[in-house]
Write a structure and sequence with these properties.
Structural class: alpha+beta
Order of helices and strands: HHEEHHHEEEEE
Oligomer: single chain
Shape: elongated
Largest sheet: 5 strands, mixed, barrel
Radius of gyration: 21 Å
Length: about 200
């Protein structure tokens, strides 16, 4: 192993390091996701436009939504996975390094797009079913997954529990901005995919 590694050029060492690291993290993410262990100690990291960082939820669901967020750690890993494996496998087959990088970047972007579509599909499947959101969601409590801009100036995301199942929806609020991780209560339903929520302010006795 050491002999093989030292025989590689610096460029190949960097490419292999990126490829193997991305592969390991991808494997861990996949195992944790399907075992329902993507909790607060997980690897998945989301960064919203307001600069807030969320390290996943403890609900055991597919709590990353790359279909709505491009700047996620999961998407970065997927890009490096596609880019890295394409680079190392085609390194000796494509003489032009510029062309190799272009092909590798295209494969990386393609993999990110494919995984984003997959998670969007899983999210829609998770939200589908016999639940009438207009009747079941109002009054439910949960937490903010992605920051909700105040005064209905934009949508964020929340995770709420309906019929003992954690579900994720877009959310608006009429008051001040509600940050990631804040507890919320559903006070209305805008449409089948968007809720109107308010922050739950702890009562100090």
């Amino acid at each position: 192993m050491i002999t093989w590694w030292t025989s590689l050029s610096t460029t190949m060492q960097v490419l292999w390091a990126v490829t193997l690291s991305a592969s390991l993290i991808f494997l861990i993410q996949t195992v944790l996701t399907f075992l329902g262990l993507g909790g607060d100690g997980g690897i998945d990291t989301d960064i919203d436009a307001g600069g807030d960082v969320d390290f996943g939820g403890a609900d055991g669901t597919f709590d990353a939504d790359p279909s709505m967020n491009l700047l996620t750690f999961r998407n970065l890993v997927n890009f490096c996975l596609g880019f890295g494996w394409t680079s190392v496998l085609l390194y000796d087959k494509i003489p032009s390094r510029a062309l190799l990088m272009i092909v590798a970047v295209m494969v990386g972007v393609g993999l990110v797009a494919a995984v984003m579509w997959l998670f969007k599909w899983m999210s829609s499947m998770q939200q589908s079913g016999n639940i009438d959101i207009h009747k079941a969601a109002v009054g439910c409590e949960g937490k903010v997954y992605l920051t909700i801009p105040g005064e209905r100036k934009g949508t964020g995301k929340v995770q709420i529990t309906i019929n003992n199942s954690v579900r994720e929806y877009d959310a608006l609020c009429e008051g001040d901005t509600i940050p990631t991780g804040a507890p919320i209560k559903v006070v209305g339903v805008v449409n089948d995919h968007t809720l109107l929520v308010e922050e739950i302010i702890p009562t100090i006795i």
